[in-house]
Amino acid sequence: MVELKSPREIEKMRVTGGFVADVLAGVHERAAVGVNLLDLEAYVRERIRERGAVSCYWDYAPSFGRGPFRNTVCLSVNDAVLHGLPHDYALRDGDVLTADLAVSIDGWVADAAVTSVVGTPDPADLRLVRATEEALAAGIAAARPGGRLGDVSAAIGAVAAAYGYPVNTEFGGHGLGRTMHEDPHVPNTGRAGRGFRLRPGLTLAIEPWFAAGTDRIVTDPDGWTLRSADGSRCAHSEHTIAVTEDGPLVLTAADRLTPAAG
After folding, report:
1. Which stretches within 142-189 are classed as H helix?
2. Residue 164 — φ and ψ, nearest 5°?
3. How confident is the model over 150-158, as a mean pLDDT?
4. Residue 142: φ, ψ to 5°
5. H or E element at residue 141
6. How far does Cα 32 stand from its chain's mean position?
7. Which residues are annotated as a binding site for a divalent metal cation?
8. Which one of 27, 72, 140, 168 is CB 3.0 to 4.6 Å from 99, fit for a cystine?
9. Which parts of the sequence bind a divalent metal cation 2 (predicted)?
10. Using CA atoms, how far apart are residues 121 and 8, in angstroms rounded to an integer?
11. CA distances from 148 to 115, 201, 240 (A)
């Protein structure tokens, strides 16, 4: 069931979204050559504790994972793209790092992700990151009242096609609000004019993610981390947005994050 949120409830989600954006900015700033993923997890855990927020990942145990997640942030490196389980790994020059964070504050959830390159960037990696950022912007722009969910998916898919990246439809965006995952599912490609009608009060996590060379993914032995099946690099960008009478409103604005260049 899709639950439409009131303007007051959207503002509460916006408070959570501001916190998520700020913590992701902190991860971005700390992600340097030699920094351990476990140190980044510890930073996020402490920020959540200080704020009195609740991690949406801790104890998360969906059908596609192996037992409770038992961490507060997903950290995916290089050919990993989703649900990256923080582990004992020191970041290396040129690594592609995605941080994905969802928390609840006062019962309202926000979810966002950002991909950055550590140290010396490879132009091909910057291009991949930029493609997800542009696809995210296109998907958000299409989330207008009176439109269809397929408009959002088609806008994302068009950017992927323009860059020549294949699209996986198994994992995509989703509704959210009182919980991290609510209806509807938001595929990263689709047909415009089809699907659920977009109405004011609809809140979505829009999250294009692409692997450079394949639309197939495999799961690590840890039971969580999803990687490209061919070992190619991956990137993932995500915002929580609300559909309003005036158009889409980004609830996880991240002004402090440095966009991909090149």
Report:
1. 149-163
2. 85, 20
3. 98
4. -85, -10
5. helix 123-141
6. 21
7. 100, 111, 174, 207, 238
8. 27
9. 111, 174, 207, 238
10. 42
11. 28, 14, 17
Residue keyed to tokens 């979204």: 17
pLDDT at 98: 98
Whole-angstrom distance, CA of residue 164 vs CA of residue 170: 19
How does pLDDT run across 164-213, given as a tens digit for each residue?
A: 999 999 999 999 999 999 999 999 999 999 999 999 999 999 999 999 99
Q: What pLDDT score does 255 carry?
A: 59
* pLDDT at residue 225, as a whole number: 97
Task: Return the pLDDT at 86.
Answer: 97
Whole-number Å distance between alpha carbons of 156 and 139: 5
Q: Which of 206, 175, 176 is nearest to 189 (CA)?
A: 206
Q: So what's the pLDDT on residue 260?
A: 37
CA distance 13 to 255: 17
- Asked whether the beta carbons of 186 and 204 are under 8 A apart, the reply is yes
Exposure string of 151-190, with b = 16+ CB inside 10 Å and e = fewer, is bbbbbbbbbbeebebbbbeebbbbbbbeebebeebbbbbb
3-class SS of residue 138: helix
Rounded Cα–Cα distance for residues 232 and 213 (Å):
6
Q: Which residue numbers belong to the known binding site for substrate?
A: 83, 181
For the annotated binding site, the residues are 83, 100, 111, 174, 181, 207, 238
Burial class (CB in 10 A: 0-12, 13-18, 19+), 30: middle
Burial class (CB in 10 A: 0-12, 13-18, 19+), 196: middle
